[in-house]
């Protein structure tokens, strides 16, 4: 085990900073224990690693195991949003101002791990969350490796890019991912080295959207997590535009309407949208929910 103690410069909610990387309640790469510690696994440039993050007396304690332990501890502040710059963000709406006050510890971290953000984002395309998360769990338990160290039972490390390329069609089917999403992930895996080497969020956006099957929404979801991009708003999300519109105007809106409402926060549009989702304000449900579609039955 290796350890690092880090004192953040301002308010920090560790659980909130790490929660975007959790893909459902049974995510094999993310676990929160009753003592409040958050466990995360990652395939770092140095190999697999497990990270435990806890808070005591205002300081963050990171404990790590595996070949990637040193890299994880070096990246710990970045993962928790130490590089997140709030300059230029002003909550000009009362809903945003109240959310910013309630969640003063919100920080947008960056993992610098593109494939770990891309694969689950692709799995979440055009399906309800629980279907995507089930596929993620199945694939990780089948192709991931056990988390190093004393990680909670069942935790896994995401496989290498080469493994994603070699998953047979029948296992994608068993996971519940149809051929389109499977091809998108496999194609991205062929270009993993180039994606991981992207120097800026703009460059990563260009590379991602050049891949068949990756559009605006998927690119934003990846850049939010891998690069900590506070402006990468998830255009195309099934719910987000309606939530933002209702919270800021009392009326649901579409993506163009959401972008108009978020324009005053350019540079921080994802931050603004994220704060709005944290309020819990939702438009009344007046129509059928998006139906779950189990591709294993096809």
UniProtKB/TrEMBL annotation:
Gene3D superfamilies: Hypothetical protein, domain 2. GO terms for cellular component: cytoplasm; protein-DNA complex. GO terms for molecular function: alkylated DNA binding; DNA-3-methyladenine glycosylase activity; DNA-7-methylguanine glycosylase activity. InterPro entries: Alkylbase_DNA_Glycosylase/TA, DNA_glycosylase. Keywords: DNA damage, DNA repair. GO terms for biological process: base-excision repair, AP site formation; DNA alkylation repair. It comes from the Bacteria. PANTHER family: DNA GLYCOSYLASE (PTHR43003:SF6), DNA-3-METHYLADENINE GLYCOSYLASE (PTHR43003). This is 3-methyladenine DNA glycosylase/8-oxoguanine DNA glycosylase.
């Amino acid at each position: 085990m290796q350890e690092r103690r880090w004192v953040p410069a301002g308010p920090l909610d560790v659980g909130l900073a790490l929660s975007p990387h959790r893909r459902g309640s049974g995510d094999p790469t993310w676990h929160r224990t009753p003592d409040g510690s958050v466990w995360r696994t990652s395939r770092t440039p140095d190999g697999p690693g497990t990270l435990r993050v806890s808070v005591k007396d205002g300081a963050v304690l990171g404990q790590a195991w595996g070949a990637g332990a040193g890299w994880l501890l070096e990246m710990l502040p970045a993962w928790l949003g130490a590089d997140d710059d709030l300059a230029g963000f002003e909550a000009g709406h009362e809903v945003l101002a109240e959310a910013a006050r309630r969640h003063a510890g919100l920080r947008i971290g960056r993992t610098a791990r593109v494939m770990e953000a891309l694969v689950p984002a692709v799995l979440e395309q055009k399906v309800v969350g629980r279907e995507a998360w089930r596929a993620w769990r199945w694939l990780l338990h089948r192709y991931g490796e056990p988390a190093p160290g004393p990680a909670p039972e069942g935790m896994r490390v995401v496989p290498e890019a080469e493994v994603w390329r070699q998953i047979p069609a029948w296992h994608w089917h068993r996971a519940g991912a149809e051929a389109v999403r499977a091809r998108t992930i496999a194609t991205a895996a062929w270009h993993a080295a180039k994606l991981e080497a992207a120097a800026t969020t703009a460059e990563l956006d260009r590379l991602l959207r050049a891949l068949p099957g990756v559009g605006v929404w998927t690119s934003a979801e990846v850049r939010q997590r891998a690069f900590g991009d506070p402006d990468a708003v998830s255009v195309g999300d099934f719910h987000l535009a309606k939530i933002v519109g209702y919270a800021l105007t009392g009326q649901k809106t579409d993506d163009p309407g959401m972008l108009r409402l978020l324009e005053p926060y350019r540079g921080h549009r994802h931050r603004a949208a994220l704060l709005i989702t944290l309020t819990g304000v939702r438009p009344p449900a007046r129509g059928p929910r998006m139906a779950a579609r189990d591709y294993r039955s096809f």
